[in-house]
Amino acid sequence: MLKAGVLGAGHLGKIHLRLLKESTRFELVGFHDPDAIVGEKVSKEFDVPYFENMGELIKAVEVVDIVTPTLSHFECAEKAIRAGRHVFIEKPITHTLEEAETLIALAREFGVKGQVGHVERFNPAFNAVKDALDSPMFIETHRLAEFNPRGTDVPVVLDLMIHDIDIILSAVRSEVVSIEASGVSVISNSPDIANARIAFANGCVANLTASRISLKNMRKSRFFQRDAYISVDFLERKVEVVRMKDAPENPGDFDMVLQNAEGVRKQIYFENPEIHANNAILDELEALADAIESKKPVPVPLEDGTQALKVALRIIEAFGRKPGEPVILS
Known about the structure:
Blueprint: E1 2-7, H1 11-22, E2 26-32, H2 36-46, H3 54-60, E3 63-66, H4 73-82, E4 86-90, H5 97-110, E5 114-117, H6 124-129, E6 138-144, H7 156-172, E7 176-184, E8 193-200, E9 205-211, E10 218-225, E11 228-233, E12 238-246, E13 256-259, E14 265-271, H8 280-294, H9 302-318, E15 327-328
Parallel strand pairs: 1-2, 1-3, 3-4, 4-5, 6-9
Antiparallel strand pairs: 6-10, 7-8, 7-15, 8-9, 10-11, 11-12, 12-14, 13-14
Helix pairs in contact: 4-5, 5-9, 7-9
C-alpha cells in the first residue's frame, strides 16, 4: 500500500479523505489544512490524523493528494515534488500556465508521477464509449449547474467547462488553431455563463456551453463522426450510439434505411454499450497507484491538465474580443 496524505479539508477534500481511507491501495497517513479549527473538526469526524505542518505530512507519505483552492495548487505541488513525492492535483492543475509548465519540468527532474483530477475521464458512461470515438468532426457539449456559491471565485470556464475541454482534447487529439468565445457575469464577479467554439487543425469543431446559474443540472456531450453519432450523459451515466452502414440489397421489414440525393443507401442501427458502475473519484486515485506501482504512464498526466488549462485560459482571453474575432493559438 502507498502511504498517502491529503492537502485540503474542504468539501472535495473530505470526499478524498473518505475514499482514501476505504481504498485498499493506499494507507491514509493524515491530512493538512491551514485552518486548524477545521483540521481538528475533520480529524475527529473521519478519525484521521491532522498535521498542522504541511511539510511534516509531505515527509511522512509517498503520495500527496492536493485538494486545496486552485491558487495554492502550485505551492503545494512544488513542495511535494521537490520532496520526491508523487502528486494528485485537482483540476484545474494550477492558476497560471507558467506554473503548470514548471510542475511538468519539476516532475521530470525529480522522477515522480503527477496526475490531474479530470474526473470525467473516469465517468462510466464515457468509459463505455471512449474507444468508439474515432476522429469526431463536430462536438457539442452542455454543462449546466444550479447556482452554488462554492467555486464562484473563478470563471465558469475554470469551474465547469474545463471538464468538457479535457474530454474533447482527449477525443480529438489534434492541435487547436482558433477559439471564439463569449461570457456573461450574472451574479458573480466573473462569468457565470460561457460559450466557446474551438476549431482544430484536422477540421473538427467543438461548441461548448457552460452555466452555473441554471434551473436544472445537465452534463451532456454529443460527438458526430463519419457514420456515427455518440451521445454521453455524464450526469445520468447513459449513452446513445447510433451508427450507419451500407444498406443490404433486400432490407428487412423493420430495418431503418436512408437514401441520400446521390442514391447511396445507409442502414441505421443502434448499439447499447455496457456501462459498469463505479466511483470515478476512487478510480482516478487508484489509477495513480497503478501507474506508480507498474511504472507506467498515468491516465491524465500533468501535460494533459496543462493543455486543458491552456485552452480554458484562451477561452477567457477571447471574452474581451469582438464577435467573430478568434484567439489564434500559436
